[in-house]
Write a sequence for this structure.
């Protein structure tokens, strides 16, 4: 126990040093300004030296001359300032008149455009537009006022989608624009070292969070086990009050495949030896929590602070282990081991693979062609899928997957407002008090940024309405097949009404799979999330709404690793989009389209992994992938 007490918090040290430096700096500033004042006082208080009357007269004349000079300069400056202010006022008035003229002109043109009939539009298109807008009006009459925030833009989107029914989609909509991406191929399965015997003790990990956080924790634990030459016990998963899922490792991933695939790298066992199972790990100081480890700790921390505990007690239990291992600097082979774990060693159990195969089959409308990632996601089920559908093969149906990260935990934790007024504020505050008590306490004692400031900085999750407007602006047609992952949306199914009004072929796994097919997964949110992972990763295009989401990071990383440069991912820049959505009451649809497409085009390119960024999200690097050119 004494050893764990030595785990220091460098943040506190930095704060202390910062305060000391500030105090010293303030003292120095005070002393300097004080000495300057004393020098100034002594200079002005110095008595005049004896002088002749002539010198006195000359001094008086010179003084009056400079006094006059200074007075003239002051008058000249005042005159210039007055003239400058006059010119500025005149210019502002002129600009205001011109702006007013153009604004009135613009309003008149808009009204004319809205009222004039379109003789070239087909009756069918017109009826579609009217029908969609009628649905939107019904939708706007719901209980929650936030549903009507984007009523105008949603109506414009409906009209644009109806008019564009027979137009071609933008050519790069279903493509990854980074051409050299195809020059990279997966190679994390290649090894260049001897197996670690795991002689230094045992590593236990009980990972917190949802399935995606747990997946990252597992692969980080694999790397730490190799780093410390220790034996890894099959990880366990903490029960979360948010996710409410008691699933363990073997309920989600193939345990035997995990052990066998990583056998050339580390030693893995299913449980501790009997003599260690009876120990009170907390009493002997072998329990290490997230409070004991800084975020993104470097390998030297584990060698210096954890290895001695391992030597002493033969076992260390990491409790939580969320985001507790850095991405740089990491030795080449250890970094590759993390990739090997994520992209090769973790495979879903047959129950999830079979249902995932059924989901993909229905998403593609029983097309005879399997996707490029199917084999890695659903294993042998991909082959049976192909055999079953080969007799009735037809043109493959492309589909877009969208991850709507708008669950209540995300909404509440963001501290943003979404137009629901006092009812929404009370509901989210009550949720925070139960699930995020620390955040509630911070909110009471610390001045935090306002919801408006958070939104302008791009720190608020995109609402479902904003996400669907984004897709319409990018050019996805009304008939596009859209799979929505993360269907437990804050606001319930009624919130999806506006989305299905614009895109009637929008579906969730709950719509595609029967209650009987979903029954084995009910009350297991992590296993349901695994189905969402399969449906999103295999999609022809994937759109995330929150770039910080672990789910979106893992999906996009998987698509990069196995996609061969042909699996595009849409990554929104929420800060840029926030400035666009702020003008939702005045912006023209054509301008909205242009600005959204420009913002997305700049984030759609996928380059090599930036330094210190996630290896799971950006696997296009020499540790995980190899160049073929």
């Amino acid at each position: 126990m004494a050893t764990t007490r030595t785990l220091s918090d460098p943040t506190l040290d930095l704060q202390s040093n910062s305060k000391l430096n500030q105090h010293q700096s303030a003292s120095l500033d005070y002393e300097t300004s004080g000495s300057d004042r004393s020098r100034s006082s002594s200079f002005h208080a110095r008595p005049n030296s004896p002088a002749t009357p002539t010198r006195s007269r000359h001094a008086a004349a010179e003084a009056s001359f400079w006094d006059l000079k200074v007075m003239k300069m002051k008058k000249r400056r005042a005159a210039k300032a007055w003239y400058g202010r006059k010119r500025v006022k005149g210019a502002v008035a002129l600009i205001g008149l011109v702006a007013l003229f153009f604004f009135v002109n613009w309003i008149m043109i808009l009204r004319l455009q809205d009222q004039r009939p379109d003789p070239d539009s087909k009756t069918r298109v017109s009826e579609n537009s009217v029908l969609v807008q009628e649905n939107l009006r019904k939708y706007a009459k719901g209980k929650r006022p936030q549903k009507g925030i984007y009523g105008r833009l949603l109506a414009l989107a409906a009209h644009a989608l109806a008019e564009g029914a027979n137009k071609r989609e933008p050519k790069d909509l279903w493509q990854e624009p980074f051409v050299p991406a195809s020059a990279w191929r997966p190679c994390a399965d290649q090894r260049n070292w001897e197996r670690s015997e795991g002689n230094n003790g045992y590593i236990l990990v009980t990972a917190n969070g949802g399935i995606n956080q747990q997946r990252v924790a597992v692969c980080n634990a694999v790397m730490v086990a190799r780093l410390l030459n220790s034996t890894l016990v099959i990880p366990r998963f903490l029960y979360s009050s948010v996710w409410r899922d008691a699933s363990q490792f073997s309920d989600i991933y193939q345990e035997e495949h995990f052990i066998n695939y990583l056998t050339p790298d580390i030693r893995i066992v299913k449980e501790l030896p009997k003599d260690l199972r009876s120990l009170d790990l907390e009493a002997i100081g072998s329990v290490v929590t997230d409070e004991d480890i800084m975020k993104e700790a470097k390998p030297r921390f584990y060698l210096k602070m954890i290895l001695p505990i391992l030597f002493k007690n033969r076992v260390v239990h990491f409790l939580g282990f969320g985001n507790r291992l850095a991405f740089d600097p990491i030795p080449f082979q250890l970094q590759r081991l993390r990739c090997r774990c994520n992209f090769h060693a973790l495979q879903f159990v047959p129950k999830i693979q079979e249902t995932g195969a059924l989901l993909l089959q229905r998403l593609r409308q029983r097309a005879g062609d399997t996707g490029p990632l199917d084999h890695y996601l659903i294993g042998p089920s991909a082959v049976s899928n192909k055999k079953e559908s080969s007799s009735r093969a037809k043109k493959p149906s492309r589909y877009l997957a969208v991850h709507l990260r708008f669950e209540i935990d995300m909404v509440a934790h963001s501290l943003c407002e979404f137009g629901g007024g006092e009812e929404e504020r009370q509901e989210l505050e009550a949720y925070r008090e139960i699930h995020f008590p620390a955040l509630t306490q911070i909110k009471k004692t610390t001045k935090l940024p306002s919801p408006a400031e958070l939104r302008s900085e791009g720190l608020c999750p995109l609402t479902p309405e904003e996400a669907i407007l984004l897709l319409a602006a990018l050019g996805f047609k009304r008939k596009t097949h859209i799979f929505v992952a993360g269907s437990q949306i804050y606001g319930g199914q009624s919130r999806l009404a506006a989305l299905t009004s614009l895109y009637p072929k929008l579906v969730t796994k709950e719509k595609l799979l029967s209650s009987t097919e979903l029954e084995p997964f009910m009350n297991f949110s992590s296993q349901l999330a695994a189905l969402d992972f399969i449906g999103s990763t295999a999609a022809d295009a994937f759109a995330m709404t929150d770039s910080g989401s672990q789910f979106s990071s893992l999906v996009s990383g998987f698509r990069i690793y196995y996609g061969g440069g042909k699996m595009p991912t849409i990554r929104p820049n929420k800060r840029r989009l926030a400035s666009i959505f702020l003008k939702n009451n005045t912006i023209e649809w054509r301008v909205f389209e242009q600005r959204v497409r420009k913002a997305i085009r700049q984030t759609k390119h996928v380059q090599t992994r930036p330094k210190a960024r996630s290896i799971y999200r950006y696997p296009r690097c020499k540790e995980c992938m190899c160049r073929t050119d």
About this structure: The longest strand covers residues 202-207.
